[in-house]
Write a structure and sequence with these properties.
By secondary structure, the chain is of the alpha/beta class. The chain folds into three domains: about 160 residues, OB fold (Dihydrolipoamide Acetyltransferase, E2P) (Beta Barrel), CATH 2.40.50.140; about 170 residues, P-loop containing nucleotide triphosphate hydrolases (Rossmann fold, 3-Layer(aba) Sandwich), CATH 3.40.50; about 160 residues, P-loop containing nucleotide triphosphate hydrolases (Rossmann fold). The protein is built from 24 helices and 21 strands. The strands form four sheets. The protein has a seven-stranded parallel beta sheet with strand order 11-12-10-13-14-9-15, sandwiched between helices. The protein has a six-stranded parallel beta sheet with strand order 16-21-20-17-19-18, with helices on both faces. The two termini are about 45 Å apart. Bound molecules: adenosine-5'-diphosphate and magnesium ion (MG). The site of magnesium ion has 4 residues, from helix 10.
């Protein structure tokens, strides 16, 4: 290949090496094992192959309109073949009265089937066809096509490469013996068969082998990273469960813990006692009770002579945490500090002193926590609530606050499917609260159209009359902040028309407001001064207003599933029956309709996340780390879940025998895994 086309391959498809070309897999194959009969051709067929005789040929038209028309016949009918270019050349190779095999894209012209520029090849009259194969087709780009590297030309390149390769050039990296009783096709064979399969069965075997390889390597990589981290990290040791923990656990819990909460506390207990730094992600649906888990963990730190802090993204969230946590801990005679941007200077000074000398053990706060002026005497545990609002760099700041890095627990309320978690977070320690506290009333979710609006408003009126509070949420349209603002204002006026002052009071929160304004409006709603909150999705994170019973989502078709679920989680936090109304216009796409249907059918965040994954594919799911999270060319997190489970298990078995993959037997495997490092690496959450 010349330098120009080589350069294009690098630029357009990131194919730099022969290896890259081998792993540039076809996205489908054309079945050339079949011969179609002319009378069976239908408009929905794409590529067809015919065997027959040329009856007649003729060049018609002038100059640009010049074309060669050939009438071609098999036992069942006739069809027209047409060439607009290379006419002389085609005329040289075809002969009226002889038999040919033709192959091309089927089109219909004036209702009659036609093949334009088909491939054509002479055959003997009753020849049985040996040229049976599945021809690969690759995705390509316009630029490449213009340089003669179309979807099928790439196959010819690959074929040329295979012709020069020996099987020994493609040594087997997987320890196939160790993987028994699985029987996998060897790599060299799989690579050939995925491009040029002998049969559909061979193709399936090749696909299985290469998918498994992807999944196994990814799992090995993640587990190796984790192993290395555990091996080299040093962490503070919480060796005992002490008085504070026991006192709260045995005497002062306002409710019995769920099984999931207990399990997670156990996992964290074990993880903070082993002398390694904990780096754990805690996932739990909205309302699953992460706060109490956080509190118990903080007490574990205190019982072992360490300080702990809880960081949340907004002032209001911090205040809410502070109020509920101090109420709990008061009973134990333990005090908690609150440090936010609006903490007064004198108070702040006092807090900082107490932290430094160690007389204050527990602190709740916003970003203010990570400022350099905040120093701890003996920080042992950092808990971060609502993870996605904090950047990695910010978290790293917290590490520096102690000689031995404190344990880190990151809590997030965005459920992600198990397969995705295993792939995206496989290198982290990971806990899930997959059970809601008992007695929760499900949130009744309905889909209503614009034309039902006045009925929806009547219902809302009756809810407000009984003392409840209401959210109206408007979508953010990313392309236009101005449009967002206009939509919101229009909505606000509309709501105000239904709910006029002075009987009703409305708060409004949106991204264009200064932070203080936002806080004030939020606060009025939280404290019940306003009955209605009109907002964009800035409201999403963690606010707790148990008295709010209706969530109205405007233009609900514009939201993704996980966002809808998060928003819905803002209601249903008290003992009252709660509702979520998804409002849309009359016209809905199939996907939007499916999302709305799922929302009305289930309240389970993990189930919704699974559906979301199936609908949108993994690249789009919130809460996943784009970089390196999904390095698969072939494997699918939706379709190949069970294969992923097997790969994970096999990876664990291999590493159990040989934790660092250091034995000579695994040298090739280790090399192979390391080669893929660049694609897969992601190590710490902090
Ligand atoms: P989230 O996981 O969304 O942060 P919270 O910790 O705020 O959830 O808990 C939601 C509500 O459920 C709180 O009012 C909390 O007191 C309550 N709660 C938590 N755990 C339990 C439990 N095991 N039984 C009953 N109520 C619980
Ligand atoms: Mg929470």
């Amino acid at each position: 290949m010349g330098p120009l086309r080589a350069e294009l391959l690098k630029k357009e498809l990131s194919i730099f090496t022969f290896g890259d070309l081998l792993e540039y897999y076809p996205y489908r194959h054309i079945d050339r094992t079949r011969i179609n009969s002319i009378d069976s051709l239908r408009p929905d067929m794409e590529f067809v192959q015919l065997a027959g005789v040329i009856l007649h040929q003729e060049v018609v038209g002038q100059r640009a309109g010049k074309r060669l028309l050939v009438s071609f016949k098999d036992r069942t009918g006739t069809i027209e073949l047409a060439w607009f270019q290379g006419i002389n050349w085609v005329q040289k190779i075809i002969q009226t009265g002889c038999s040919y095999l033709v192959y091309g894209r089927l089109s219909f012209f004036n209702g009659r089937p036609q093949l334009v520029h088909p491939e054509i090849e002479k055959i003997e009259p009753e020849q049985t066809l040996e040229k049976k194969f599945l021809e690969p087709v690759y995705s390509t780009t316009e630029k490449l096509k213009s340089k003669g590297l179309g979807g099928r030309a790439l196959g010819r390149l690959t074929q040329a490469l295979f012709a020069q390769l020996k099987d020994s050039d493609l040594t087997e990296p997987l320890p196939l013996d160790a993987l028994k009783p699985m029987t996998l096709m060897v790599r060299s064979e799989a690579l050939r068969q995925i491009h040029f399969p002998e049969s559909t069965e061979h193709y399936q075997q090749a696909l299985l082998r290469l998918k498994f390889e992807e999944l196994l390597v990814a799992q090995l990589r993640m587990q190796l990273v984790r192993w290395q981290r555990h091996r080299f990290s040093e962490g503070v040791v919480f060796e005992k469960v002490g008085q504070y923990f026991n006192d709260l656990y045995k005497h002062h819990l306002p409710f019995g813990l769920t099984g999931a909460q207990k399990r997670v506390i156990k996992e964290i207990r074990a993880d903070t006692a082993n002398g390694k730094q904990m780096n754990r992600l805690l996932q739990g649906d909205v309302g699953s009770g992460k706060t109490i888990v956080a509190v118990l963990c903080m007490l574990l730190a205190v019982d072992n002579g360490y300080q702990a802090c809880l960081m949340a993204p907004t002032e209001i969230l911090c205040q809410q945490h502070f109020a509920s946590v101090s109420a709990l801990l008061q009973k134990l005679g333990l005090s908690v500090g609150l440090l936010t941007g609006s903490t007064r200077t004198r108070e702040r000074k006092q807090l900082l002193n107490q932290l430094e000398e160690g007389s204050l053990s527990l602190l709740i706060g916003t970003h203010a926590l990570i400022e350099d002026s905040v120093t701890f005497k003996k920080l042992g545990l950092v808990i971060i609530d609502e993870q996605h609002r904090f950047g990695v760099a910010q978290r790293a700041q917290l590490w520096k606050k102690s000689v031995v890095p404190p344990h880190m627990l990151v809590m997030t309320a965005t459920p992600i499917p198990r397969t995705l978690a295993m792939t995206a977070y496989g290198d982290l320690d990971y806990s899930v609260i997959d059970e809601l506290p008992p007695g929760r009333q499900p949130i009744k979710t309905v889909h209503r159209f614009e034309k039902d609006r006045s009925r929806v408003m009547d219902f809302i009126k009756s809810e407000i009359t009984t003392g409840r509070q209401i959210y109206f949420i408007y979508p953010l349209i990313e392309e236009s902040a101005t449009l967002d603002y206009e939509n919101l204002m229009k909505g606000y006026e509309e709501v105000k028309a239904f709910f006029p002052e002075p009987s009703y009071h409305i708060s409004m929160v949106h991204g264009r407001q200064p932070a203080e304004q936002k806080e004030i409006n939020m606060k009025r709603f939280v404290e019940g001064d306003t009955q209605i909150m009109v907002a964009t999705t800035v409201i999403e994170v963690g606010v707790n207003v148990p008295n709010a019973s209706v969530m109205v989502i405007e233009s609900a078709e514009k939201f993704g599933l996980s966002q809808l679920h998060q928003l819905r989680g803002r209601v249903g936090r008290g003992s009252e029956k709660s509702y979520c109304v998804l409002l849309t216009g009359p016209k809905l796409g199939a996907d939007a309709r499916e999302r709305l249907k799922i929302m009305t059918q289930t309240g389970n965040g993990f189930e919704i996340a699974e559906k979301d994954l199936a609908l949108r594919g993994p690249g789009e799911i919130e809460g996943t780390r784009q970089s390196g999270a999904l390095p698969f060319k072939l494997a699918s997190l939706v379709a190949d879940r069970s294969l992923l489970e097997v790969a994970r298990e096999k990876a664990a078995q291999l590493l159990e025998m040989d934790p660092g993959l250091e034995s000579p037997r695994h040298a090739r495997l280790r090399e192979f895994v390391n080669l893929r490092k660049a694609i897969l690496t992601w190590s710490k959450i902090s």
